[in-house]
Amino acid sequence: MMELLAALENSGFGVWLRESPSIWAYPAVLTLHTLGLGVLAGGNAVLDLRLLGWGRAIPLAPLEKLFPVMWIGFWVNAISGVALFVGDATTKGTTWVFMTKLAIIVVGVALLMVLRRTVYGRGETGAVETPASRVLAAASLVLWFLAIVTGRYMAYV
Amino acid sequence: MTEILSLFAVWLRGTPVSEAIRTSTWLWPVCEILHFFGLSLLIGVAGFFDLRLLGFMKRVPISAAWTLMPWAKAGFGLAALTGVVFFIGAPDQYIDNPAFYGKVFFLIVANLNAVYFEAMYRRQVEARQLDAGGSSTLKVIAIVSIVSWFFVIYWGRMLPFIGSAF
Fold this sequence. Notes:
The complex is a heterodimer of chains A (157) and B (166).
Chain A: H1 2-9, H2 12-19, H3 26-51, H4 66-87, H5 89-92, H6 96-120, H7 131-153
Helix pairs in contact in A: 2-4, 3-4, 3-7, 6-7
Chain B: H1 2-14, H2 16-23, H3 27-53, H4 62-66, H5 69-89, H6 91-95, H7 98-126, H8 136-158
Helix pairs in contact in B: 2-5, 3-5, 3-8, 7-8
């Protein structure tokens, strides 16, 4: 495992990302990762806040269009995240902070899918609010906050 | 001007508050977390409103989308407050950093844009006169908002890479 991580880190791409003085290397990838975070966690916050009772005048049905926006944020961060991992594989691949962050993201994404099914799963009959959708919204808000917490903590390991 | 700024940075760095921020092991990381949390709230809620002004999610009345805006303002307040903590803690790292001035420039643009929107349109939005949206001025305001917040993030991320790194 350690050899694999070292090979990743010492690959042409890994070295380039880490050592290139170009602002298109590490700085650009990190910028993308921050943007994706804002779009995913922020778009999610809009939906969660609405489900938790703020902005009640906003009809729920059109908010389903936030999901493709969140997915864009997710994929930008999945791809930029893989790049950042390759550049620092032996550190990130061996710390519990990173594993915790990954676990939080897996649960967060699964929760988003369940949330979508719960609220929008009825098809043409429109969106529904249930006690379950409120619990899911609260859990989702907490999880993406924890993803930010563990992500920031990565800078200190 | 640059000399005055450097003297100010030296003075600020020497204050007990600045030293307390630098020597605390937890304060800086906690402020970073809150800075990013505030950023997400701001980008999410303001971005949602901007998309609505641009014509997405047309079934959402603009007055309704507007009611979430206090959350964007809270996010901005959180990011601004924690940003001030960073500045007080290490003013020398910002004062001669070109990325800092890039960030401040776009913060000013983004805030003037928001203030202009409130001054010109808030009353109409709250009276539900703009619910259908449409005007091209509103779309320009939305684009200026998205672009300027993008560059606030971009220059913020560049702080450690251009100029004095930390």
